[in-house]
Write a structure and sequence with these properties.
By secondary structure, this protein is an alpha+beta fold. Helices cover 18% and strands 33% of the residues. It has 3 helices and 12 strands, in the order ααβββββββββαβββ. Strands 1, 2, 3, 4, 9, 10, 11 and 12 form an 8-stranded antiparallel sheet that branches. A 4-stranded antiparallel sheet has the order 7-6-5-8, with no helix packed on it. The longest helix has 27 residues. The N and C termini lie far apart (84 Å). 22% of the residues are buried.
Length: 191
């Protein structure tokens, strides 16, 4: 018994294979570009936002005109901690954003004596404030209200902060400074 072998009928190439190779490459390139742009928009709108530092109140940690990324998502799942650099709407003018370091948490008693910060009676170690940036003023003790934060700039002698206008409501804080991306020589994590 012999087996019969039939030749498969030749199929016409699929329509997409008839296109010139350059068109196919362009379609894939455009698709990849669209996906990349969409991901970038999602990251910038919902998670990371680039901002420019204006002023010297956070020196030496951040300098005037540096570009940083802030994480707008982190505080949805974690709490604000002492030492975090936060970005918030200025309590006296919500059209302006400020960046400062969190010093006092809700319920803390914060006092500044001769330029040194005391939280709940303990002197706060602040290696990010050089002596030449410390003012030597004394400010009365304040108990930080619930859902509020006491914030200070690192350049104490030139910072407009909680010593002047009080605490910041939690709802005004919308991001945490996480990464310096410009200028290149200062690129790195925010400390």
């Amino acid at each position: 018994m012999e087996e019969e072998v039939k030749e498969e009928p030749k199929q016409e190439p699929k329509e997409s294979l008839k296109r010139p190779l350059g068109v196919v490459s362009a379609v894939f390139w455009l698709r990849d570009l669209a996906v990349s742009v969409l991901l970038a928009v999602i990251l910038i709108v919902f998670i990371y936002q680039p901002v420019k530092v204006e002023g010297t109140s956070m020196m030496p940690s951040l300098t005037d005109q540096e570009r940083i990324f802030i994480n707008k998502f982190t505080y949805r799942f974690s709490t604000i901690a002492r030492g975090d650099m936060v970005v918030f709407w200025f309590p006296l003018d919500r059209t302006k954003s400020y960046i400062k370091r969190v010093i006092g948490l809700p319920g803390d008693k914060v006092e500044v004596m001769d330029g040194f910060v005391f939280v709940n009676g303990q002197r706060l170690g602040e290696n990010y404030v050089p002596d030449e940036y410390r003012d030597h003023n004394t400010y009365r003790m304040i108990e930080v209200p619930p859902n509020q934060y006491y914030v200070l700039g690192d350049h104490r002698s030139s910072s407009n902060d909680s010593r002047s206008w009080g605490t910041v409501e939690r709802s005004y804080i919308y991001g945490k400074a996480v990464f310096v991306y410009w200028p290149l020589e200062t690129m790195g994590r925010v400390k």
